[in-house]
Amino acid sequence: MNRNNLVLHARLSIERGSKSFSRASKLFSRQTRERAWLLYSWCRACDDLADGQDHGHGMSVVANPQKTIAAMRMMTRRAHGGEQTGNPPFDAFGVVAQECGIPIDFANDMIDGFALDARGWRPETEDDLFQYCYHVAGAVGCMMAIVMGVSPRDQEVLDRACDLGLAFQLANIARDVAEDAAAGRCYLPQAWLAEARLDPENIMGPDRRDALIPLVNRLCDLAGAYEESARVGAASLPFRSRWAVLAAAGIYGDIGRVIKKSDGASLDRRVYTSKARKLGSIVKAFGQALVKSPRRDRQQLWTRARTA
Alpha carbon of 75 to those of 9, 85, 90, 140, 244: distances in Å? Predict the structure, then answer.
C-alpha cells in the first residue's frame, strides 16, 4: 500500500476501535492527525494479535502466544527499518516511525507488555502495576508525543506524555476488572488484594464486592493524579495538539470519574460516557488549551526508565 491507502486503512481502524480517540484525533492538524492514525493502527493490530480480538472486541485464546509475540517483534523491527511487510498496520508504523524518528525502544517496550500477558503475568506490587501500564500505554504516550513534534530527547515532556498513557490504562483496568477476571486476568496488585483479604482467583464473588470497590476506586484516583500531571505537559505542544490531548484527557478521565461515582456498577456492566459528555469535554478542552496548566510536581509519581 502507498501512504494514502495506509492512512485510509488506519482511519477506518481507529473509527472501529476507538470512537473516543477518533473524535479527539480530528482536532489535530492534518499531518499530525494522519500520523496519529498510522501509529494507532499498529498499536491496535498488536493488541488484537496479543488478545485474539478484532479491534478490541471478542477476546479469545491465542494458540501460540509466544510465537505471536515473536512475529510481532519481527514485523515491527522490519517496518521500523523501512522494509515493506505486506501487513498494513505494520507498514503504517514504518511510515510514521520514519517520518517522525520514533525510537525502536518505545515500540519494543510496548510489545514487552503483551509478552507479560502472554505468560500470564500478574503484578505483585503497585510498582509492578505502573511498569505494566508503561509498557502497554505509557510507551504509546511517548510515541504520540514524538508524533506531535516533541523531541525524543525531551525527557521531561515525554514523562508527562507517559503519565497520560498511565492515566488511560489505569482507567481501563478499573473499567474492565470483571471482564479481565472472566478471561483469567487480574491487574490489581497482589499486595492490594492481600490487604483487602481478597483471593486473587475469586475476586468477583458477591460477598467480596464491598472489599473490591475501594480497590477499583483506588485505581480511579491514581488515574486522576496522572491525568493532572499529563495536562502540564500539554502546554509544550502546538495549540491544536494541545487541544486534542486535553480533550482526550477529559474524555478518558471521565471514565474513571464515572466509575468511581457508580459505586461498583462497573463490576456488573461496562461503563461508558455519553456522546454529549464527550463533546462537552472537547469544548471544555478548547478553553483549557488557551491557558497554561498550573505547574504540578512529579516527584511523588512513578517514573519510567529512560531508554531513548
Answer: 18, 6, 7, 18, 30
Whether the CA torsion 252, 256, 261, 267 is positive or negative: it is positive
Per-residue pLDDT tens digits for 42-54: 999 999 898 776 6
Dist. CA 144–CA 172, nearest whole Å: 18
Return the pLDDT at 60: 63
Whether 52 contacts 59, CB under 8 Å: yes
Unique residue bearing C-alpha cell 471482564: 179
Q: Hunting for cell 504540578 — which residue is that?
A: 296
Q: At 58, is the pLDDT very low, low, confident or very high (cuts 50, 70, 90)?
A: low
Q: How many Cβ atoms from other residues are within 10 Å of residue 155's Cβ?
A: 15
* Cβ burial, residue 291 (10 Å; 0-12/13-18/19+): exposed
| Dihedral (CA of 286, 289, 293, 297) sign | positive
Amino acid letter, 219:
L
Q: In whole angstroms, what is the distance from residue 301 CA to residue 139 CA?
A: 16
| Cα distances (angstroms) measured from residue 141 to each of 57, 192, 266, 270 | 22, 26, 26, 24
pLDDT tens-place string over residues 139-187? 999 999 999 999 999 999 999 999 999 999 999 999 999 999 988 889 9
Amino acid identity for residue 269 in this structure: R
Name the residue type at position 27. Answer: L
Alpha carbon distance 96, 91 (integer Å): 9
| Whether pLDDT at 38 is above 70 | yes
End-to-end CA distance of the chain: 30
Query: Does pTM top 0.85 for this prediction?
Result: yes
Identify the sign of the CA torsion 35, 37, 41, 47.
positive
